[in-house]
Design goal:
With 648 residues, this protein is an alpha/beta fold. Helices cover 40% and strands 11% of the residues. A 7-stranded parallel β-sheet has the order 3-4-5-6-7-8-9, with no helix packed on it. A 6-stranded parallel β-sheet has the order 17-19-20-21-22-23, with no helix packed on it. A 4-stranded parallel β-sheet has the order 11-13-14-15, with no helix packed on it. Helix 2 runs parallel beside helix 3, helix 17 runs parallel beside helix 18 and helix 19 runs parallel beside helix 20. The longest helix is centred in the last third of the chain and has 24 residues.
């Protein structure tokens, strides 16, 4: 920051009134009376990491903060008195990660902190300071900045009560490892890269296995001895993560395979047949998301068979680049909902046929080409969903074959379709997605496709890549009843604009055409009714009758009339609507008039008023959009019904 910004009492008062109006992290210094006010905040967190200095009095006041976390990560120095005051903070966590060289006395003062203390800025520590921290009174001490502490310092820290986090340590001497292994309380060593066969390292591995946690994160470990693996395999938690291992000896694989709980080995690209066979023998689940090859060898086939039995929602093998037919046959037996094989760029006809027997969803969006024979095999797919979004070109024969497939078909990579291909997809009974489509012409096949797209059974139709749309195709798409996305279109003909403006469903357009579209939509709504909307012709009476249960006041009805008039007659922008509502204090709470009017703004094409505006005063479990949709539906029906009745 180029200059100093002082957080004054006045700024603190403004923050207390509206927390969104002030960014506390911008300020580098803090007045004492401002600190006194900020300590009264009722939130969970107080972020003041922009401060580079703190007076003793301000520290005393901030320590009174009743929230969970106090962050002062910008402080590079601290007086002993200030440290003593901050140590009195009764919240969960005090973060002082900006301190790099505090004196031994300051460290001793902070050691009296009762909760979690973060001192990740410390890159070195004297033995005296380590001795002070060994007396730490809190629940958790994090010193992730230490990378090469001496054995004496590690030995001192190891005596500390509470959880000790030393995430910066990549290696440990045998003496240091042995010292940590002696700890009775838990510890974290997420940066550890090596566990050898030395006595201290084996004792550490044994102690790591006894850490009481759901998941043991050793993802930085790149070297693991067989004996250390045998100790880690005794871990009693739910998950052992060893994603840093890129190679694994057969003996080490055999040792780890005996571990109970989920075993994650995400760094392994290949496995020997013996290692694959050992892991395949596991009773509990495992994860191999980095696996690149599955061959027809016995161990690999056993592994593929075992992978298919993993009890998970989805099986992620997206880095697999080589898959044998035999392994594909086994993977196709996966009983979860989704098998992800997006790393495969090519697929033999036989492998395609094997995978086609998959019952759930199959993702093959890495494929860049597909033979007609492979397409014929995939046409027999018996699952619910097949994704082939990487294909940018397909022969008509391949498209015609795939079109016969049952279940949802994704071909998001196709930008254009021949008339024959478009006609083939249009004949599908099941749903399909063509999110990459760029052109819809007047050809017979394209019009049939547009007609079929409008009948897709889903809430939204995404055609955001579409840049060229014929008038006839637009008329077909306009029949879609859900939310239509056409954000790729930057120019519409007058006829297409009118066609889309008259449809009743929601539509999302490119900003270049939105304003024109809104104006046309309002005009056409008036033309459709034969005249301008009449507020005197029974609308308010009809609305009042239908909404009498909410007991809206007369001024609320007046406001509603004025807002809708602004939208319909004057083409008022969303920003002006927002400003009007805000000025008249019509936001949130029980103001159904606001909800109805803002949602009606959407009905006529002005729905870019922020959702947060409707959220004011709502309970956490209430979705203002749902309330608005419900009220808008009744309102628009009332408006149309009463207006048309008055025309008769």
């Amino acid at each position: 920051m180029s200059h100093s910004l002082i957080l004054t009492k006045e700024i603190a008062e403004q923050f207390l009134k509206d927390e969104d109006s002030v960014n506390l992290s911008e300020y580098t210094s803090l007045d004492d009376d401002a600190a006194q006010l900020l300590a009264k905040i009722k939130g969970r967190y107080l972020h003041l990491s922009g401060l580079i200095a703190l007076s003793d009095t301000a520290a005393q006041e901030l320590a009174k903060f009743n929230g969970a976390r106090l962050e002062l990560n910008g402080l590079i120095s601290l007086s002993e008195a200030a440290a003593q005051e901050l140590a009195k903070f009764n919240g969960i966590c005090l973060a002082l990660n900006g301190l790099t060289t505090p004196s031994d006395t300051i460290v001793g003062a902070l050691a009296k902190m009762k909760g979690m203390l973060l001192l990740n800025g410390l890159t070195s520590l004297s033995e005296a300071a380590a001795q002070e921290l060994s007396k730490f009174k809190g629940e958790w001490l994090t010193l992730n900045g230490l990378t090469t502490p001496s054995d004496a310092i590690v030995g001192a820290l190891a005596k500390m009560k509470g959880t000790l986090n030393l995430g910066g340590l990549a290696t440990l001497s045998d003496a240091a490892a042995a010292a940590i292994a002696e700890r009775s309380d838990d510890f974290k060593l997420p940066g550890l890269q090596v566990l050898t066969d030395s006595p201290g390292n084996l004792a550490l591995a044994e102690r790591l296995a006894k850490v009481k946690c759901y998941s043991l994160d050793l993802n930085r470990l790149t070297s693991l001895s067989e004996a250390a693996a045998q100790e880690l395999a005794k871990f009693n938690g739910a998950k052992l993560e060893l994603n840093g291992l890129t190679t694994l000896s057969d003996a080490t694989a055999g040792a780890l395979a005996k571990m109970k709980g989920t075993l994650t080995l995400g760094g392994l690209a290949t496995l020997s047949d013996a290692a694959a066979a050992a892991i395949a023998e596991r009773a509990d689940d495992f994860e191999l998301p980095g696996l690149q090859v599955l061959t027809d060898s016995p161990g690999n086939l056993a592994l593929a068979e075992r992978l298919a039995k993993v009890e998970q929602y989805s099986l992620n093998l997206n880095l697999l680049t080589s898959l044998s037919e035999g392994a594909a046959q086994e993977l196709a037996k996966f009983n979860g909902l989704k098998l992800e094989l997006n790393g495969l760029t090519t697929l033999s006809d036989a492998t395609a046929g094997a995978l086609a027997k998959m019952q759930g969803s199959l993702e093959l969006s890495g494929l860049t080409s597909l033979s007609e024979a492979a397409a014929q095999e995939l046409a027999e797919f018996t699952g619910k969903h097949l994704a082939l979004n990487g294909l940018t070109t397909l022969s008509d024969a391949a498209v015609e074959a795939l079109a016969k497939m049952k279940g949802t078909l994704e071909l998001g990579g196709l930008a254009t379709l021949s008339d024959a291909a478009a006609a083939a997809i249009a004949e599908r009974a099941a749903n399909f997605e063509l999110t990459g489509l760029q052109v819809l012409t007047d050809s017979a096949g394209n019009l049939a496709l547009a007609e079929r797209l409008a009948k897709v059974e889903q809430h939204s139709l995404y055609l955001n890549r579409l840049t060229s749309l014929s008038e006839a195709a637009a008329k077909e798409l306009a029949k879609f009843n859900g939310h239509l996305f056409l954000r790729g279109m930057t120019n519409f003909s007058e006829e297409i604009t009118e066609t889309l403006a008259l449809r009743r469903g929601r539509i999302s357009l490119n900003s270049q055409v939105t304003e024109v579209f809104k104006a046309v939509r309002v005009k056409l709504w008036e033309i459709k009714r034969g005249t301008s909307l009449s507020w005197e012709s029974g609308f308010l009476k009809g609305a009042k009758k239908r909404f009498n249960r909410v007991r809206l006041l007369k001024d609320e009805f007046d406001s509603l009339e004025e807002i809708l008039s602004c939208i319909i007659y004057r083409g008022t922008s969303a920003d002006e609507i927002y400003e009007f509502l805000d000025e008249n204090d019509l936001a949130g709470g029980g103001d159904l008039a606001c909800e109805m009017s803002v949602e009606f703004a959407w009905v006529v094409g002005a729905w870019d008023v922020p959702y947060s505006f409707l959220s004011k005063g709502k309970g956490e479990d209430e979705d203002p959009r749902e309330l608005a949709y419900e009220s808008a539906q009744i309102l628009s029906e009332s408006l149309i019904e009463n207006d048309l009745n008055n025309r008769k």
